[in-house]
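Hey,
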Amino acid sequence: MAREWLGPGGLPGLQNRWRVALRAAVGSTPIHSRLNAYKVALSREWMKNDKGTFMTFPETEVLTSLVARVFRIEDVTADHPEEGMQWRYRGHLLNIDSVSAFDQLAASVKPYGLTPLFRLEKGEQIIYLVNSPPKQKPSNPWVNVILFVLTVFSVMLAGTFLAGETPEGPVSADFGSQILFWLKYIFSGWPFALAMLGILLAHEFGHYLVSRYHKTPATLPYFIPFPFSPLGTMGAAILMKGVPKNKRILFDIGVAGPLAGMLIAIPVLLLGLYMSSLSTIEPSPNSFIEGNSLMYLFAKYAVFGKFLPEPASFGGMPPFLYWIRYFFTGQPSPIGGTDVFIHPVAFAGWAGLLVTALNLVPAGTLDGGHVVYSLFGEKARKAFPYLIGIMAVLGFFWNGWWLWAFMLFWLGRVNAETLDQITPLDSKRRLVALLVIVLFVLVFTPVPFSLLTA
């Protein structure tokens, strides 16, 4: 229930004095549910300041005067103090420089234990003053170190299989022989591990360093080992422990990872392709062929002078239609044709493109979700059902998309919000956003893997 005044009990005399001072009626607009993320552990006592004492009427006048320095107030509402909500101001910013206005107001109300939220609601500018969230405890860096070391060995193990290093004959089951076996073979996977982890490290530290630059608390990267898988890892992630100040900062953090990762992935891919060779594709029930993105397709053309895999026959179809069909379905399997048998370093570069594409999927808290939310705001949510539908269709050609659709339906419907949602992207960031969307189109792989079956 909204309370229409500024102190215990809602005293009518003070309420009238408040209305006169603001020359506007005090409303009772309910607080939107999305602000529940800012709830903190509060007592149900009304309007306490950061020192644990009740705010008096002069203190509330001071707060409103601070808001009035940057905002032309039309009305004010006090709602749900037990949920951490203090005041809601409706009006217009006095200055078009909303970044400076937010910084000024945030510094002014900080001594009161409050944080401002800038919002656009039905075309109107709103400022909320809410209780500042408590500082989070620092994470234990040893967890990051241990996970990274485990991932290094897991990725090196994947590299040994990619390099074709397998034992000849049976391996003794005793512990000592097993250790000697792994020590002998696992280090042959270092080229793949160096390339793969270099791409992932660049990606994650791109996020981390930009978060630090913008003073948004974030954890070190958490690497996820995945032994006996093609890549040896499920990637890595950092956790944002603070709320980005505005969409510009959210955008910077979101695009830093993919762009930094691509700076490593492209030269790694080209170097690996130069170390690879062409050969005829033979059917094998336990083998797979990596899928094409536009960037991977053109990278192979740049190195080998032909689009690969080159089929033995187009089956009477025009080449253009054949490639459209193969690109989006992975069919028909190019058995008997020519393809690049990629070096482990090239495979790491290809995986870097795939990881970038998956992170740039425009949904939820993925990097692509940050980009489209920063660019289009709440309108970006309207594309979510179509995205799920596209993944459901692509799942008939690579069932991994069904898993992604399920994960996004579960986790991808919530975008990372910012304290200031009034400040838009500037022209330079809008240009970068369009370039990132183009990058997503270039690295998106409709069918990442397909089996080599006759």
